[in-house]
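INFO batch 0412 | record 1 of 1 | parsing
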Amino acid sequence: MTSVAAGKGREIRPDVFYYTNQIVNVIFLGLPGDEWVLVDAGMPHSGSTIIKEARTRFGDKKPLAIVLTHGHFDHVGGIVTLIEKWEVPVYAHPLEFPFLTGVQDYPEPDASVQGGMLAKISSFYPHEAIDIKEALLPLPADGTVPFLAGWNWLHTPGHSPGHVSFFRSEDSTLVAGDAFVTVRADYFYKVLIQQKEVNGPPRYLTTDWDAARNSVRLLEALHPEVAITGHGAAMEGSELSKGLKRLAEEFDTLALPEYGKFVPGR
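INFO prediction complete | emitting tokens
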């Protein structure tokens, strides 16, 4: 899987940069050459690519930590390589720990869900647990983010039980993970050309739609000025605010599939 954005990066704040690894975004938080933190770890076998991109922005300075929005395969694909190279802690929500410590596999992707080709072939996507327990730590219970002054994490479940998003109120910057995305993630062509639209979480891996709806409403209430999501281009201004407001208000029409094994009452 790939997209026209693959291999490209964009700075949306002086200390907020994201890089598209095939179809998923990896976020670098910190001023170039200064202390920094990595958010998520890309597609499988992406570790060396992320290390190269980090070196371009930060030189030989390794991150202080890696923080995860969640543990799906496309967000932790390079993490073992990164841990071995950098020897840094990895922070996640405790509800993601079973999937990150080899205890429990994620549910198999829902290839039966209403959606496009990327949904129909999702049974091929990895869903097995990984084991990084030696590096893994829980995000602080007070909502702060280690080494990132001014940032807070919010529990935004639905796409996964321990999914989190990160928000900096000072400049209303949101790192949303897959709580919502800015591309229709199950349509191959839309992913390929990165057609921008505020959409619900990738439907083939979302297991709790009621929680997903509540998470979108929680994030919309923050009124972010700019957002980086797990998939799709960063979005800002009225395009973001109008799209996110519409998604929050019309979630069942815009995001909730008409059928699928995790769809309530369907």
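INFO post-check: The chain has one domain: 9-254.
INFO record closed
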